[in-house]
Write a structure and sequence with these properties.
With 430 residues, this protein is α+β, with helices and mostly antiparallel strands. The protein contains 18 helices and ten strands. The chain folds into two domains: 220 residues, no CATH class; 177 residues, no CATH class. The protein is 56% helix and 19% strand. It is elongated. The N terminus is likely disordered.
């Protein structure tokens, strides 16, 4: 039957767009083989390639989403750039504020006071990072005003000793709006009985939620003048915070300001403050790419085994083609076509599946969590409590291209073996 089809094909000149190597290779791919096991292995190879590509696209999208989301939340609660003094005390801060604000890339600048303390309410005690801010200026520096869940940032009035707490911190203390907490500062005062810590009662005027445990658990905001009194700074501040027009230029802006400022002052941008975290994310992203690429490599090994068995199964057909004048190169191209079709279909299916899943991850993950009653991300461990996704199509093209290249390389050895088939040896036992 094969010879009859071949004779018919021989006398029907193929078109330029479909040479006989492509015709026979596609026919082998579509045909129902006598050996159904080979067809099953081909299907497994195709699905393995699709699974590997889809996993790579989804994981890279999730890693991009983590980096983007955490960066947005970090910069929503902290300034893009800070200028601090050696020792944490900036006395003559107004000229420094003017110098920072005059930089072309700085959209807003404000003084701040930072210190550590302990909050006490009833029987609960929590360590906190206290930040003294000017509420009127803070709205131009960070997005804390938009994160307030109860109360208002404007209620931090000078001399009234109000305090704004993170949601998790307020929950841990068991405190609510308008209740009073005791703030204990490490700067003590000398008394007849020795050194005693400074205590001050603050009224809770607001509760914010950033969505990141380091801020919601540990940050407390008070008015800058109240912070100066609490930490005994007088008119001094801890530093100057600034917001930039382009956050990606933060290292260059920090370098420019460092060249203009006195040597006892340090300009510190957000990339330096969180450098360890972002380096870890990049390293993890690269390692996940390498590890998940092994899935594609396993699928490529399946393509090799599929073509080796196909070559063994088609020994008689190869011998007939060689007898009719087909060159070894043509035989090699036939089986390359067969393997490339498997890899191409698997890569396309994986790319489409990965794109669809990455774009709908915000729906799929909550459905799975609700269905099985589990939570994949705990906010106190992973900083955020939802699985973000940021699909980048250039990465999709990169993954698809690498996967297709691996599938193409996997076809070379079996195709080479097929091209070395000797007609006499193949037909001896037919």
């Amino acid at each position: 039957m094969f010879v009859a089809h071949l004779r018919q094909f021989k006398y029907t000149r193929p078109s330029v767009l479909q040479p006989y190597e492509l015709f026979i290779g596609l026919r082998y791919t579509r045909a129902k083989r006598r050996n159904h096991f080979i067809s099953f292995i081909s299907l497994i190879s195709m699905l393995g390639m699709a699974l590997g590509v889809m996993a790579l696209i989804v994981v890279l999208s999730v890693m991009n989403g983590f980096q983007k989301e955490i960066r947005a939340r970090m910069l929503g609660a902290s300034p893009h750039l800070e200028v601090i003094a050696d020792g944490g005390r900036l006395n003559d801060w107004r000229p420094v504020l003017d110098k920072v604000a005059q930089h072309p890339q700085v959209s807003a600048a404000a003084p701040y006071v930072a210190g550590q303390g302990m909050l006490s309410f009833g029987q609960s005690v929590q360590g906190v990072m206290v930040r003294g801010i000017d509420p009127a200026r803070e709205t131009a520096i960070t997005e804390l005003a938009n994160k307030i869940k109860a109360g208002a940032l404007e209620d931090l009035r000078s001399g009234e000793f109000g305090i704004v707490l993170g949601t998790d911190l307020a929950r841990a203390l068991g405190v609510r709006l308008d209740e009073k907490v005791m703030l204990i500062a490490p700067q003590g005062q000398i008394t007849p009985v020795g050194m005693m810590p400074r205590l001050k009662q603050f009224r809770v005027v607001g509760i914010f939620e950033i969505g990141m445990a380091p801020y919601d658990n540990n940050l407390a905001l008070i008015n800058i003048s109240d912070a100066q009194k609490l930490f005994q700074l007088g008119d001094a501040v801890t530093g100057i915070s600034a917001r930039l027009r382009d956050i990606d230029l933060a290292p260059r802006v920090a370098h420019d300001l460092q060249m203009q400022l006195p040597p006892e002052l340090f300009a510190n941008d957000w990339t330096h403050q969180n450098s360890n975290y972002f380096r870890a994310v990049q390293m993890e992203k690269k390692m996940m790419f390498i590890i998940l690429s092994l899935i594609v490599a396993v699928a490529a090994f399946n393509i090799v085994s599929t073509l080796v068995m196909a070559v063994t199964d088609k020994q008689a057909d190869i011998a007939i083609l060689r007898t009719l004048g087909a060159s070894p190169r043509s035989i090699m191209k036939i089986f390359i076509v067969q393997g490339v079709v498997i890899g191409l279909i698997g890569t396309l299916l994986g790319s489409v599946g990965g794109i669809v899943l990455a774009l709908n991850l915000d729906v799929v993950v909550p459905f799975i969590e609700h269905l099985f009653g589990v939570q994949f991300l705990a906010k106190d461990v992973y900083y955020i409590n939802e699985l973000p996704s940021d699909l980048r199509y250039h990465e999709v093209l990169l993954v698809s291209g690498i996967s297709f290249l691996i599938s193409l390389l996997a076809t070379l050895y079996p195709s080479y073996r097929a091209s070395k088939t000797q007609p006499a040896e193949a037909l001896r036992y037919e």
